[in-house]
Write a structure and sequence with these properties.
Blueprint lengths: L13 H15 L3 H22 L2 H16 L3 H19 L2 H14 L2 H10 L2 H19 L3 H19 L3
Helix pairs in contact: 2-4, 2-5, 2-7, 2-8, 3-4, 3-7, 4-5, 7-8
């Protein structure tokens, strides 16, 4: 019996790579308001997803970042551990696309416009408030309550938006 082999259609990925690089450049130039809008959509769902995917070691790792943020002696240290907390939540989802998206957003959050905006707005009282938000998020994740984790993260990002961009 003779098998008929159909020729495969070859698709070039050269244009795809160039387009992907253009998209990344546009995304990396996003301003704080755009980044926060995306975070408000994605992070509550990431926090909910972690409830079912995080191991005990992941939970400990997330809590350690929260504890370090609470103990941070200054805004720069707090910002580092705040970013770590959010990154560790994303990492515990085990979703590579979410993790990569968070890495891009985290990179944008370390750029000059963000830093200047935060320096003007984030006071010691705000840091304590954000740490209280983080505690609620971490506790909900540790209790494996997806709805509470999502709600706590949504509230946290919403407060940040209101703080940085008052109406």
């Amino acid at each position: 019996m003779t098998t008929i082999v159909k020729p495969r259609k070859i698709v070039s990925t050269a244009g795809t790579t160039r387009e992907f690089i253009r998209i990344l450049k546009r995304m990396s130039g996003a301003g704080p308001a755009d980044v926060l809008a995306v975070r408000l959509i994605i992070e509550p769902q990431a926090a909910a997803a972690v409830v079912s995917s995080a191991s005990g070691a992941d939970l400990k790792f997330i809590r350690e970042a929260h504890d370090a943020a609470m103990a941070a002696p200054d805004l720069a240290s707090f910002e580092h551990w705040d970013g770590e907390l959010h990154s560790r939540i994303y990492s515990a989802t085990r979703n590579e696309l979410l993790i990569s998206l968070n890495n891009l957003l985290a990179d944008i959050r370390t750029r000059t416009p963000w830093i200047r905006l935060k320096q003007r707005v984030i006071t010691e009282d705000k840091r304590r408030e954000y740490c209280a938000h983080h505690a609620a998020i971490v506790d909900a994740i540790a209790r494996r309550n997806a709805d509470q984790a999502s709600d706590a993260m949504h509230m946290h990002i919403s407060v940040i938006i209101d703080d940085l961009f008052p109406k």
